[in-house]
Every structure is written in C-alpha cells, then in structure tokens.
Amino acid sequence: MALKVYLSGEIHTDWREQIMNGAAGLDVTFDAPVTDHAASDDCGVAILGAEPDKFWHDRKGAQVNAIRTRRGIEGADVVVVRFGEKYKQWNAAFDAGYAAASGKAIITLHPEEHDHALKEVDAAALAMARTPAQVVQILTYVLNGTLPG
C-alpha cells in the first residue's frame, strides 16, 4: 500500500526534509505548497499582472496558490499540518479545515504551547505529533504495522 502525504504549514524550518529523509525506503510520495516565501507571495502578480493595492496583490497570490494547495490536499491520503513556534499560520489552520472537510486523515505537528489554541484542529486530527520523527513513526506503522524499535 502506497501513501500520498501532503505536508502543509510552517515554512521556516526543515521539518519537511526531516520527514522525507526519515521516510526514505517507505512507499510514500510527498507533496507540499511552494515554500519559497517570495515566490508564494508574488506568484499572482508575476503571472497575472501587477496590483497597486496590497490586498489585491495578496489575493491574486492566494488564489493561484490555492490551486496547488487544493490539488495537493485532495490527492493526499494523509495531510500533515505543521504549526511552528514563531509565526501564526492562519493558512495552515485553513488547510487543516479544508482537509477535514474533505475527509482526509490529518496529523497535526506542533509544540505543546500551542495545545490550547489548536484544540479544535487537534480534535479533527487522527494524530497529534510533537516531532517530525513521530510523524515518520506513524507513517511507518500505517504502512508496515511495525512499532518503533
């Protein structure tokens, strides 16, 4: 059984690489949003034309990015949503809600200090992990039925 995993959320640390490297050898394919912050912010105006108003600049980018995000979430078996320490990830919360509404299996990944703020998101998830290694262990168990050694 192969798994398609969409890695959503925080883009300022290497958590995605940790999961992908840890899952090497598992029958898993990964997808993710564009993690180049400038490219993600400016894709709409770079492709569709400049906007003098920052609201419309951001809106164009958000809508173009939504095409990739929706495709990634809809094609996934599992959606991992990372909430980092430094920034509020409203987009990650939206992705978690979209994944829940789409009936996807969700794993949230965040530090303990976010437990209260994310209680509703965690309630929709099938697992809540603290570390990328725990996400890899979940994927290993789901695919192979084996526990960490």
Question: Any overview of this molecule?
Answer:
- With 149 residues, the chain is an alpha/beta fold.
- It has a domain at 3-33 and 74-144: Rossmann fold (3-Layer(aba) Sandwich).
- It has 6 helices and 5 strands, in the order βαβααβαβαβα.
- It has helices at residues 15-22, 37-48, 54-75, 90-101, 119-124, 132-144, and strands spanning 3-9, 28-31, 78-82, 105-109, 127-129.
- Strands 2-1-3-4-5 form a 5-stranded parallel sheet, sandwiched between helices.
- Helix 1 packs parallel to helix 6 and helix 2 (37-48) crosses helix 3.
- The radius of gyration is 16 Å and the shape is globular.
- The protein starts with a strand and ends in a 5-residue tail after the last helix.
- The mean pLDDT is 96.
What attributes characterize this protein structure?
6 helices; Rossmann fold; alpha/beta; 149 residues; globular; 5-stranded parallel β-sheet
Helicity range: 40-55%
Shape: globular
Compute the number of strand runs: 5
What is the count of DSSP helices, taking H or I runs of 4+ residues?
A: 6
**Radius of gyration, rounded?**
16 Å
CATH superfamily of the domain at 3-33 and 74-144: Response regulator
**What fraction of the residues are assigned to beta strands by DSSP?**
15-25%
- The order of strands across the largest sheet is 2-1-3-4-5
Please report the first level of CATH classification, the CATH class of the domain at 3-33 and 74-144.
Alpha Beta
Look up the CATH topology of the domain at 3-33 and 74-144. Answer: Rossmann fold
Can you name the CATH architecture of the domain at 3-33 and 74-144?
A: 3-Layer(aba) Sandwich
Computed structural class: alpha/beta
Order of helices and strands: EHEHHEHEHEH
End-to-end Cα distance, whole Å, is 22 Å
The main sheet comes to: 5 strands, parallel
> Which regions are unreliable across 5 or more consecutive residues at pLDDT < 50?
none
Q: How confident overall, as mean pLDDT?
A: 96
